[in-house]
């Protein structure tokens, strides 16, 4: 910890310092730029036929006096537009786009016109309940929407240097600062959906105004203190609630408001809320030197990753409340695993990496990114998953079986609650921020994504050119070009899925032993010269994966993983009734590149057994098995690629025979 009370922490790497040129990711980056962001702009303007209306743009136009009408949508509708604008800002930071900039500037003009004189800015309360500001923080997302708008304002300023939106959100934050606090006359509250905390940190870093950091810390410190604010607030409203009409109690754990944040040890409640809160906690801990806050982050990280995370990086297993349930409760068919929750997990992992570069954080970041997050969007960029199941039978989705009514067998065009599509857009548009971090004289490579990066280390500037066919192949090459010869460390992550690796520097083998390893990274410290080449070869076998014995849903089952990718069986390749398939433990697993399938990918094939009952005559139950064993060649595809070939069954976990 330095003299200012801060912890050592990597600075943000600007997106114009990183150019992604990667066979896998460039497709998605271009998709976000050319399809996703334009499509979402149309959806936010209610111009996509067949998709649920948004009303988000029109709400601001009405609030600005440019249109006539009433507020449309959910109470947090503003946040969809803010996330879209943040994604647009990241694209503009990476590459000039005059057309997109003109659209964004016009939107910002409208937002500025909608802002009230005192700084307040929320279209729901401006248009629908102007006398109810700050009366239902439990449910109505006022500070959540403010947080997303602040993030957009900071991102747009960083991208373009234009201050208009930054000034708008700073004025809003100043107003919020005048409302909230423990001083006499202020409201000693906090929002039901965390987000403002991490946003205020970004605003502090963009402006240097410490009051924003203090306010972010206040919201964290106040949460869970007694008397419980949400219960007191409900009493002041006479028991009236936004969603249910009336109620006597607030589910404090759902909002992570049941205990002070430093005392919470188990992930509980709404998953996105918790992960946004933890992201803010990590940021505030780093900037204030608060060891107790960081210790709470680590404790909850261990619980999430060690006991409540799906193999795909999905979190939040319970549809009731989009929430964590209890340790090892990871059902595959009734799962929730909201896309936004995995994005929140990536945010949290990145913040922990910036404080303490340990590979365990990057391993989870990679797992969530390559499986749940990229799987949350179709390859056309126009269809999305809100929920990410690990087992699907279309017959069980919808209809009378409300237990899985939230699960969709195909991606949807849009949602009434459309938080996930713009969240995917802003994450993928900012992907360059997640590949590297720099701490003093060490460059950490967390993700293996091809492209160039211009980075600043203690000894000067250095350009890294990364070349790889990851995630299909484990060979990663780095060409190092320091501005002047200098000594620094290049730290390469050794992924948790990799059983063996070898390394060469300028063609010479480097023994991977002794002090070369630290916290899961291979650390190459040397005097670097222009043209130095590092080649890392990561063994990428197909691996059988098993669950902890307490995960009841996966008892007797196996999943396949190759590199960072989890695999699944899909009806399109293997026919219906996937539950009949059994994978013998001795079956050989063959990885094969299929260039014409879903944009080129590696599939895994194996000889399995199908247990079927074509001659079953025992009624619903029988004392005799009457099962026919048939040989079956099965094909597994990467989980992220499922549901791109029409509706059908899917499963990640398969029965195994010893």
Write structural notes for this entry.
With 658 residues, the protein is an alpha+beta fold. It has 3 domains: 15-433, Glycosyltransferase; 436-538, Maltose phosphorylase, domain 3 (Sandwich); 543-657, no CATH class. Helix content is 33%, strand content 19%. It is built from 16 helices and 24 strands. The chain has helices at 25-44, 56-63, 78-94, 98-114, 123-127, 142-160, 164-179, 196-207, 210-222, 229-236, 271-288, 291-307, 339-355, 359-375, 420-429, 571-574; strands at residues 18-20, 269-270, 323-324, 391-392, 436-439, 442-445, 451-457, 460-468, 475-482, 486-493, 501-505, 508-510, 517-518, 521-528, 532-538, 542-545, 557-562, 565-570, 581-584, 590-594, 601-612, 628-638, 650-651, 654-657. It has a 7-stranded antiparallel beta sheet with strand order 1-7-8-9-15-11-12. A 6-stranded mixed β-barrel has the order 17-18-22-21-19-24. Strands 5-6-10-14-13 form a 5-stranded mixed beta sheet, with no helix packed on it. A hairpin with a 2-residue loop joins β17 and β18 (565-570). α3 (78-94) runs parallel beside α6 (142-160) and α8 runs antiparallel to α9. The radius of gyration is 25 Å and the shape is globular. 50% of the residues are buried. Keywords: Hydrolase. Pfam families: Beta-AFase-like_GH127_cat, Glyco_hydro127C, Glyco_hydro127M. GO terms for molecular function: hydrolase activity. Residues 17-433 form the Non-reducing end beta-L-arabinofuranosidase-like GH127 catalytic domain.
């Amino acid at each position: 910890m330095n003299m200012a009370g801060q912890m050592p922490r990597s600075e943000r790497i600007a997106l114009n310092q990183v150019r992604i040129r990667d066979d896998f990711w460039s497709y998605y980056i271009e998709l976000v730029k050319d399809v996703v962001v334009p499509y979402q702009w149309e959806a936010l303007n209610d111009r996509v036929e067949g998709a649920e209306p948004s009303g988000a743009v029109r709400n601001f136009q009405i609030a600005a006096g440019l249109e006539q009408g009433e507020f449309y949508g959910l109470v947090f509708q503003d946040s969809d537009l803010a996330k879209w604008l943040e994604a647009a800002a990241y694209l503009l930071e990476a590459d000039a786009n005059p057309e997109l900039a003109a659209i964004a500037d016009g939107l910002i003009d409208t937002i500025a016109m909608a802002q009230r004189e005192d700084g307040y800015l929320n279209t729901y309360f401006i248009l629908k309940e102007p006398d109810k500001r700050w009366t239902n923080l439990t449910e109505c997302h006022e500070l959540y929407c403010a947080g997303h708008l602040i993030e957009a304002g900071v991102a747009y300023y960083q991208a373009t240097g234009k201050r208009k939106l930054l000034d708008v959100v700073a004025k809003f934050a100043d107003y919020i600062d005048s409302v909230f606090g423990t001083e006499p006359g202020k409201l000693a509250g906090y929002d039901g959906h965390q987000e403002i905390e991490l946003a205020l940190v970004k605003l502090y870093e963009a402006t240097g105004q410490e009051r924003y950091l203090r306010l972010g810390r206040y919201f964290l410190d106040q949460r869970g203190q007694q008397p419980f604010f949400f219960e007191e607030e409900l009493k002041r409203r006479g028991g009236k609630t936004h969603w249910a009409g009336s109620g006597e109690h607030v589910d404090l754990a759902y909002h992570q408001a049941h205990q002070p944040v430093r005392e919470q040890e188990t992930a509980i409640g709404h998953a996105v809320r918790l992960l946004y809160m933890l992201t803010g906690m990590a940021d505030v801990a780093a900037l204030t030197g608060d060891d107790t806050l960081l210790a709470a982050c680590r404790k909850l990280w261990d619980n999430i990753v060690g006991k409540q995370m799906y193999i795909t990086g999905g979190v939040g297993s319970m549809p009731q409340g989009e929430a964590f349930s209890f340790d090892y409760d990871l059902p595959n068919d009734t799962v929730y695993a909201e896309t936004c929750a995995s994005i929140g997990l990536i945010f949290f992992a990145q913040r922990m990496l910036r404080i303490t570069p340990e590979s365990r954080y990057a391993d989870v970041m990679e797992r969530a990114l390559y499986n749940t997050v990229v799987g949350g969007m179709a390859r056309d960029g126009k269809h999305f998953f809100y929920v990410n199941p690990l087992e699907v039978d279309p017959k069980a989705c919808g209809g009378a079986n409300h237990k899985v009514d939230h699960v969709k067998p195909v991606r949807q065009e849009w949602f009434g609650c459309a938080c996930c599509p713009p969240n995917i857009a802003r994450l993928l548009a900012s992907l360059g921020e997640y590949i590297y971090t720099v701490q003093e004289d060490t460059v950490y490579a967390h993700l293996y994504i091809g492209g160039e990066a211009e980075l600043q280390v203690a000894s000067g500037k250095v350009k890294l050119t990364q070349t790889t066919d990851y995630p299909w192949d484990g060979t990663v090459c780095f060409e190092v070009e320091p501005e002047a010869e200098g000594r620094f460390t290049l730290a390469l992550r050794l992924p948790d899925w990799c059983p063996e690796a070898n390394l060469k520097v300028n063609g010479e083998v480097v023994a991977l032993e002794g002090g070369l390893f630290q916290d899961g990274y291979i650390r190459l410290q040397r005097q670097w010269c222009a043209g130095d080449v590092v080649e890392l070869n990561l063994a990428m076998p197909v691996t059988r994966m098993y669950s902890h014995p307490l995960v009841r849903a996966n008892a007797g089952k196996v999943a396949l993983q190759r590199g960072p990718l989890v695999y699944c069986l899909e009806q399109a390749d293997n026919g219906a009734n996937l539950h009949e398939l059994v994978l013998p433990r001795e079956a050989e697993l063959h990885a094969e590149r299929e260039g014409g399938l879903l944009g080129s990918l590696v599939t895994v094939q194996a000889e399995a057994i199908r247990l079927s009952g074509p001659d079953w005559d025992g009624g619903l139950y029988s004392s005799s098995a009457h099962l026919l064993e048939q040989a079956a060649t099965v094909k597994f595809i990467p989980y992220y690629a499922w549901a791109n070939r029409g509706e059908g069954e899917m499963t990640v976990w398969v029965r195994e025979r010893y």
